[in-house]
Amino acid sequence: MANVVLIDAGGTNIGSVRYALQRLGVDAPLSSNADEIRAATHVILPGVGAAAPGMQRLRETGLVDVVRGLTQPVLGVCLGMQLLFEHSEESDTPCLGLIPASLQLFAKSDALRVPHMGWNSLQIQRASPLLAGIDAGAFAYFVHSYAASVGDYTLASYDYGGAFSAVVQRGNFYGAQFHPERSAAVGARLLENFIKL
Amino acid sequence: MLTRRIIPCLDVKDGKVVKGVRFRDHVEMGDIVDLAQRYRDEGADELVFYDITASPQGRSVDRDWVARVARVIDIPFCVAGGIRSVDDARAVLHAGADKVSVNSPALERPELVDELADAFGVQCVVVGVDSLRDDDGEWRVRQYTGDPTKTRALARGTLSWVEEVQVRGAGEIVLNCMGSDGVRHGYDIEQLRAVRTLCKVPLIASGGAGMVEHFRDVFRDADVDGALAASVFHSGAIAIPRLKTFLREEDIPVRP
Question: Predicted ipTM?
Fold first, then answer.
């Protein structure tokens, strides 16, 4: 049985992610305790908000190196995914550096509202157990203003004035830019796949 | 491709969903979680809960129901009504809401929008704007529209308010066109188009939906990101699956 721990990174979606796991029969405690996090079989880094306070929170709780050193499957959600990258243009914030790329603000235009908010379709870039049962064209719920371009770490992408990373992976670190906890059956499947990794 | 959103709005009073003219003749429609689940199953893209208990009395209320909804619902939802401070918003967001919507309190104290955006990020902050065209042809905002005896007209023009709240940190704007609200003759395309040209964040149309064609028109002609409606969904006049099938046939991208 998976022993899933949610890192308390101060985001407002922690409750929602926890409820989503409960719907899958998994009761994941919220923790900022290094030992508890290291002992988990699966770790989720949720997060809604901004990159700088997100990193600040990880520093204050002494978790920056703890997260970097994790060897079990780790899933960053939304801001949690962004924090896995090297850098975010948002307040010029250095992040965890686990994925060698950076986040940029969407370029606003008449046709391109920012934040990118709503249900967008996924294109599969690389097969992965994390995406088992999620078909090309499946819809997921996004809400964010900063985006990661597509790279060799991209498992799935979406189109919003160009292709960007929707699901990423490097080693044991995974991330979803969309909100699986708010993406109906597609999101539930991604979480279910993650806890089976 | 980003799809256009269909958003049922549910009025909540004392933890129950009600319908009726606001502040009088409320008829209970049933349990909030059951109704939320029904709309989710029918393919709603998002839900808005308008807590009508809170605002007129100027107090925040027991919102245990937010957590009950969040436990069950796996689509995004927004809570409106009675959010006057960062603390009010935090309580609702931590209970599991994805967004908060502010209206009259933002008009009383526009800094509230900045404070919410700083605390939670712009993606959590929706500003609701109630707007009506005056005799001189200008659209102006209305305040305290929840209670007809308290509603008042402000000197503030709708377009300038829409510009200001974006600078302050609104991540989404819901424009409720009061002239068309409840009449079911269609959304106010003219006003929504005018606001659209100034609105660089997602814009949600509210007020006037009566037929499926009205949804097509507002997406096609006013280029809004979402369309909100209440009575046509609650009464069963429009079923969301049929609405979405129609929109797809009309080449409006919607989530199945």
Answer: 0.93
Question: Residues of A at the B interface (Cβ-Cβ below 8 Å)?
Answer: 12-16, 19-20, 22-23, 48-50, 108, 113-121, 139, 141, 143-145, 159-160, 179, 181-185, 187-188
Task: Give the model's pLDDT for residue A1.
Answer: 73
What does the block give as tokens for A134? 């999620």
Q: Which of B98, B130, B188, B225 is catalytic?
A: B130
Model pLDDT for residues B139-152, shown as the tens digit of each residue: 999 888 777 777 77
- Res B146: pLDDT: 72
CA distances from A2 to A171, B95, B246 (A): 19, 25, 43
Domains identified in chain A and CATH numbers = 4-196 (3.40.50.880)
Helices in B78-171 by DSSP H: which ranges?
A: 86-94, 104-108, 111-120, 158-168
- Which two structure tokens, joined as six digits, stand for B228? 């909100």
In chain B, which residues have pLDDT < 50? 22-23
Q: Which residue in A165, A192, A193, A156 sits closest to A24, CA to CA?
A: A192
Distance, in Å, from the CA atom of A172 to the CA atom of B167, rounded to the nearest integer, reads 40
Handedness of CA B197, B179, B38, B245 (dihedral sign): negative
**Other CB atoms within 10 A of residue A62 CB:** 11
E-only strand ranges, chain A: 4-7, 30-31, 42-45, 74-77, 85-88, 93-94, 99-105, 116-121, 123-124, 139-144, 146-148, 154-159, 163-170, 173-176
Residue located via tokens 């994941």: A28
Confidence grade of residue A180 (pLDDT, cut at 50, 70, 90):
very high
Q: Both tokens of residue B189?
A: 């395309």
